[in-house]
Amino acid sequence: MRRNTTDYISLMSHALGKTPDSRHKLIQTFNDAGRALVNAHPWSWRTRAAVTVLVEAGIPYANLPEDFGEVVSITVGTAQSYAVVQTSLADLARRRSGGQYDALCLFVAFEGGYDGPTDEDGVETNRMQLHPTQTTARDDITIDYRVKWVDMDESRGERVPLIPRDWERALVMFARSFAVDTENQISPYENEALFGPSGEIQRLLILDAGRQTNYGRPLANVLSTGRGSYYPHRRVSR
User: Fold this and answer.
1) What does the alpha-carbon distance between residue 54 and residue 74 come to, in Å, rounded to a whole number?
2) What does pTM read for this prediction?
3) Using an 8 Å Cβ cutoff, are 73 and 145 in contact?
4) Helix, strand, or coil here: 24?
5) pLDDT interval class at 52 (50, 70, 90)
6) Could you tell me which of 20, 27, 21 has the C-alpha nearest to residue 175?
7) What is the pLDDT of residues 138-164, one digit of tens each?
8) Are 138 and 230 in the same domain?
């Protein structure tokens, strides 16, 4: 049975051996631990491939999945005669304000990911900004992207973090260590959360490398081998 959010919080309380300080919110510490584990390495399971981005007519952006962290590559349907060009948010804003338009190019920039903006309810928003705004809906753009940690909420204690089963033990270790660290205000240089579970991280690195080999995936960073380009102003191959 998979561990849910309530299970992790309970294990963190067990590590403390007492009721946590009123200023210590275990759910926040749990999310800190989850982010640390997910970002510890570009794990192979973090890559989502060929995800369709739905573009609506008259809207200057397209919504991205909740777990979007960063784009790896963009692909456009082979039937199209135009190019999609990834650029920065600053460059896209300049093109919009200056009215710059290229009928053969669709400029896109990604916002959100690891440090995305939030809406009026405090929920992070992940979007692919577009220029020019499309006059018709389209579903011919797909992206490969790397997932991020999605924050858990105590009000949904039954929710299971989106990590593979083999990574659950590491998350337990991180969460418990982070809880003790935060409660006791341990210096970062003495932080067991950084050094205690290192053996488990090494085990997962070996496991992950084996999975990539078994399924024919490159051992190199996917950013260096993916389709298209992560960098601004470079055209994406179709």
Assistant:
1) 13
2) 0.75
3) no
4) coil
5) very high
6) 27
7) 999 999 999 999 999 989 999 999 999
8) yes
